[in-house]
Amino acid sequence: MRVRDITRRAGRSLKNAKARTLLTSLAIGVGAFTIMLSLAAGTGGREYASDIVSSNTNVRELYVQPKQDNQTGGSSGPREYDDTPTVSFGGGFNFKLLKQADIDTFESLENVTSVTPVYNVTPKYVTREGEKKYQTSMEAFLGTLQQEYLAGNGDDVTGSKVILPDSYRKALGFDSPAAAIGATVDVVISASVTTPGAEDRTFSLEVAGVTAKSDLAALSGQSSLQASNEVVKEMYQYAQQGTPIENAYMAATVLASSEDAVEELKKSINDKGYDAQTAEDLMGFIFQFINVLQGVLIGFGALAVLTSIFGIINTQYISVLERTQQIGLMKALGMRRRDVGRLFKIEAAWIGFLGGAIGSGLAFAVGTAANPWIRDILTLGEKTNLLIFEPWTFAAVIIGLMIVSVGAGILPARKAAKLDPIEALRTE
Amino acid sequence: MIEVKSLTKTYGKKQHIFTALDDVSFTIPDGASVAILGKSGSGKSTLMHAMSGLDRPQVGEVIINGEDILKLKTKEVDKFRATKMSFIFQSFFVQANETCFDNVSLPLEIAGVSHAERKKKVTAALEAVELGDKIKSKAKNLSGGQKQRLAVARAIVNEPEVLFADEPTGNLDSTTGDVIEDLLFGYAKRNGMTLIIVTHDADLAAKCDIEVRIKDGKIESISEPRKKVVKKPMQRRVQ
User: Fold this and answer.
1) pTM for this entry
2) Residues of A in contact with B106 (CB under 8 A)
3) Where are the domains of chain A?
4) In chain A, which residues have their Cβ closer than 8 Å to the Cβ of B52?
5) How many domains does chain B have?
6) Confidence of residue B157 (pLDDT cuts 50, 70, 90)
7) Residue B75: which of A325, A333, A336 has the nearest Cβ?
8) For testing the chain A interface, which of B110, B147, B164, B166 should be mutated: the one with the most A CBs within 10 Å?
9) pLDDT for B113-148, tens place per residue?
10) Whole-complex ipTM
11) Structural domain of residue B101, as residue ranges?
């Protein structure tokens, strides 16, 4: 018997038991629904996360630190001195720093556009005439970051320009973002305690832009003031002068010439004995979290599918019993055992197909309808969809469930194939 | 020609042994109509099952066209049944939810006949039993007589060499029963098909060329052919 003819007959006998077919399909459809939504949430979540990553970090950037010694090897005796600048913490815990020679090494590498030491500057306070003093932190301005400006812009952050977050704009007494543009704020840096008689130094900076609180900026410091690299460097040097760690840095950012060169550059920096991390490495934990969450959801879907397997087995067993006489007739007419078995397996496959189609179709409808609602509740960005359905997932879910259903149909199919036609035709 | 040689079929073991068929032997010439006559429990159904390869007796041979079908593999017996035999049952066994077309098409599908060929043959078979206008009707909407005519169409659609009919008129009133009988005998005569009817109806048996009487699994009597069975050339099977 031709497979096409068997498939047609299988479809027909399911049509003859519409309610039962539909109910069995719905059971497996619940699994399909859950799995589809998990896949969509995973895709959407990853896309959202990569939006966050790209607006907080530059994918061409590498964050490079010196390779730290193994700090736990206490029993190996006293460590040899080396003249690398370090920050010492209590208990012999040392944190190595980068020196200018290291920076020069990075600059000599291929595919490097620029190397910027990370200046950790914590000013004493920020203020302006007639206003209170506020704690703050300073960051070097990076033109590659995406941020939203309420007033002004980041086109020309050079010299003594500064970018102010909106919260500081309010605190410093500007009525509107526009009113802050061009005004002067004072950032006060205290000198290192090791330099006797050194006084606090005030940097007067001109506001070039006011940034909105970004939904995507949750992870990095767009709550700090951003000034040009030169200014921040000057502040850093002023704060560190006279200390053993003058001209040494916690880390440096190395900008690769292109996105493709990042991985290779990371490798060559690591080969030289440093610890380089790409933006992806730094943000990797987000993706890992999303993947774990997605895995758990898919697990629930798989559980629903597992339950529905028993439904399919049960339905198909009943179907075999009900159609004993029909099976007997088909075998008497010379239908082969293999073909009888196939008939029931294909019926099971149809059920799986139907369940997969219903479940994933419903998931698509519900997900598409829920996207704007989720966006409102979680205050995501304007165009962010947390549930993204990819075409291949529909095919994968439906085909997967068809295979599972055929698996469930094996036992009933075997029972049908083994049926003795004489016994079967005696039934009546 | 069908030769049945010393068929013996038993059920159960040792002291509970029951002999359904006991050393049954006879010969049926091609194109003959044969009645296997006996009371219920006489073993006539078992004989039919054995002759069609549905059942496997412990001893004996069933030689059809020189081949012992009891020695064939299951797969080959299935093929034999799909292409050379067919059945009619007392309770019709038509599929109520399917159309007449799909009911009659089943044996052809099993035999692997192409779609276009099937359409031609099914239409012809339904017209032969005067159900040409019911081709798209569901079988459940047919009367008892029409259902059995549908079963006849299904049985002749693959142009079998042997047709087994198990009490074909048992569930019908005498008028509709006569129609079915005429259909069967007419078709068998025209096409040189061997017709084997299992029945306890003596009137029906009397219409057959040969009567084989069975009692307690043994042959009681075999009548001489009423008339000379004319062997027809089998050109109808040239497809």
Assistant:
1) 0.73
2) 329-330, 333
3) 3-54+286-426, 60-278
4) 332
5) 1
6) very high
7) A336
8) B110
9) 999 999 999 999 999 999 999 999 999 999 999 999
10) 0.90
11) 2-230
